[in-house]
Amino acid sequence: MTIRAVVRGVGHYLPERVVPNSEFEATIDTSDEWIRSRSGIERRHFAAEGQTTSDMATRAAQAALAQAGLVPDDIDAIIVATSTADLTFPSAATMVQARLGMTRGFAYDMQAVCAGFVFALANANALILSAQARRVLVIGAETFSRLMDWNDRTTSVLFGDGAGALVLEGQEGMGDSTDRGILSLDLNSDGRHKDILYVDGGVSTGTTGHLRMMGKEVFRHAVEKLADTAHTALEKAGLTGGDVDWIVPHQANIRIIEATAKRMQVPMDRVIVTVQDHGNTSAASIPLALSVGVARGQIKPGDLIVAEAIGGGLAWGSVVLRW
Ligand code: ACO
After folding, report:
1. Are residues 191 and 141 in the same domain?
2. Which domain holds residue 222?
3. Whose CA is nearest to atom 39 of ligand 1?
């Protein structure tokens, strides 16, 4: 028998305010047509004034716990993947822990920008396989609207806010690729590429800063690296693109999503796409897409999923899991 980290519940939260592309036309030199055709984005949600990453993370966690039929004290650990924690410290995860009324276990944040949720899943998987935790709440939550330079048309139209959460639980499997749960992972980073995607603030400047991106460069790395990492993770699990029921990609740009699926030889009707409604929600985008995929009736128990993401660092990776 092999212990697997199996998804027991999923949920998400999106802030109420929906911002269509047309809203940007009033303030910057852009158009709905440009944004749609270059990115696939039609609208995104923005957090209300005063609404924070830990607020949204808590709402997503509550939805995932309800779906799992669990209460907060059934959870041993909380990992929040985020680059936009409410404060420099403490972690957003400990704030979520307090808000859930959870008085036991441990909580911490994971920061690998848009790839953060994949890294957090790897970490949760390791906690479960090493018996340090039986149930882990893994949350991706972001308020990227607070990192935007609203005068920069090349970045401000691309990002959105939101949160998604999974409850992972250790369950016994057979040790082969028919098992439910996380089957394999592939993680990578290359710090030489810092300058193509970063935030120009932090403790070194005393400001929160704004997101800066060389979009074309990031695009080139994404197309190249995402299919490779997905392929590597599938290979580790003894599977191929032909075994995949759903690719759940990081939702940054429909053209990257399509190019990756093509390189993996998986047709687009087996790809969960939410970028049109959410924009790029960084570490929240994969759990949001998983939750929406389940709510739409696309993802069903037993489906084989490969989720892949790339972001600032550069950091990138993928996970193969059976729902
Ligand atoms: N409206 C109108 N025109 C625009 C806009 C806009 N919002 N933004 C840029 N343009 C202009 C540019 O100024 C440029 O004009 P020029 O030719 O006169 O210089 C022209 O449009 C073309 O710009 P490109 O940057 O070449 O456009 P491209 O087709 O590459 O699309 C985009 C840009 C959407 C940013 C794309 O490169 C992309 O998606 N990159 C990857 C982003 C990504 O994957 N990020 C994920 C990681 S995010 C993270 O980790 C936080």
Report:
1. no
2. 181-322
3. 253
